[in-house]
Amino acid sequence: MSSPIVTGLLAYGMSGRLFHAPFLTTHPGFKLKAVVERNQKKMAQQYPEVLSYNSIGEILNDDEINLIVVNTPSHLHYEQTKQALLAGKHVLVEKPATATLPQVLELFALAKQVNRRIFVYQNRRWDSGFLSLKEVIESGKLGKLVEVHLRYDRYRLALNAKPFKEDAEIPTSGLVYDLGPHVIDQAIALFGPPLSWHKVTGIHRHGSVVNDYFNIQLSYPHQLKVFLTASLMVAQPQPGFVIHGTTGSYIKDRCDVQEAQLDAGMLPTDVSYGVEPEGSEGQLITIDSNNQKQIEKVPAHKASYMDLFEAVYQTLTTGALYPVTEEQIAWQIEILQAEDNN
Q: What pLDDT is recorded for position 341?
């Protein structure tokens, strides 16, 4: 087996604690060596063997580290990814990779110039609901697809306590750049780049100056329409996945349990990790040749964000293709930065 990929985290907030450290410390192909903690040194409570640096400069000067996880606030991603590449590190950067298309194309070009790799962390491709949706589509049971809805609903009327998330002067603030990368990436993973799109956003919370609602309609060949919606004003979340085709429909709530399990302290190596509870099954409704309706419960398979880290590992050690491609990220950011059609 190859030597572990020595890795450093740029932050140990929620994302570092839930979405990175548990995987980097349980996947045998990685060694989590260090983290940047400018103020409180919290990581040692759970991972005493991990070094805590006071600045990004310190962690980038650690010659043993060859992969940097950029999991800082999104408006810092472009500059910090650039710093890491110039320091000779591979980079796993959280979504959105950058605010604009020129920025991300510049980073991709720089990575090639310095012979390093950029991986964009699109973990929602490994959600149980999305994997279930993908399986149903690929089964062909829905016939020709007509309409697809991907939703991300929350109810959070209070403004975010993190000022950068509510500052209209910061280009990555607002719900479009927060949840948009998830649903846009899922659509692109399923269907590729759209022929065109129509984007509408809204600001509804009292005192807010950034968007807290969006709907993006993507048009694909053969008249397929894909609707991407997210809102902070939904008291009763609607199904996260709805598909209608010429021979049936599929409806599924957004029930992935991984974030809650990680927050409760469960490790990704636990046999129960990523397993949806009973009652979370999707509904597949099909019409047979006699025009009779058939309803089938479709349980989601076990899911794990570890598959993302395994994909990073395989790319760096064997040259395998990372499933989230540069082209797909460029399409995503082009939609994110596009002006509204309000």
A: 83
Asked if 282 contacts 250 with a C-beta cutoff of 8 angstroms, the reply is yes
Instruction: Give the model confidence (pLDDT) of 93-125 as tens digits.
Output: 999 999 999 999 999 999 999 999 999 999 999
Task: Give per-residue burial for 143-156: e unless 16+ CB within 10 Å, then b.
Answer: eebeebbbbbbbee
The secondary structure of 219-284 as a DSSP string is: E-GGG-EEEEEEESB-SSPPPSEEEEETTEEEEE-----HHHHHHTT--TTSTTTTPPPTT--EEE
Cα dihedral sign, 259-263-264-266: positive
Strands 241-245 and 248-252: antiparallel
How many residues are listed for the chain in this entry? 342
Residue 71 corresponds to which tokens in the numbers above? 């999991």
Task: Give per-residue pLDDT as tens, 140-162.
Answer: 999 999 999 999 999 999 999 88
* DSSP code for 155: B
Q: Which residue has the tokens 């973990």?
A: 123
Report the C-alpha gap between 24 and 9 in whole angstroms. Answer: 10
Exposed/middle/buried for 223, CB within 10 Å: 0-12, 13-18, 19+?
exposed
Which DSSP letter does residue 288 get?
Answer: -
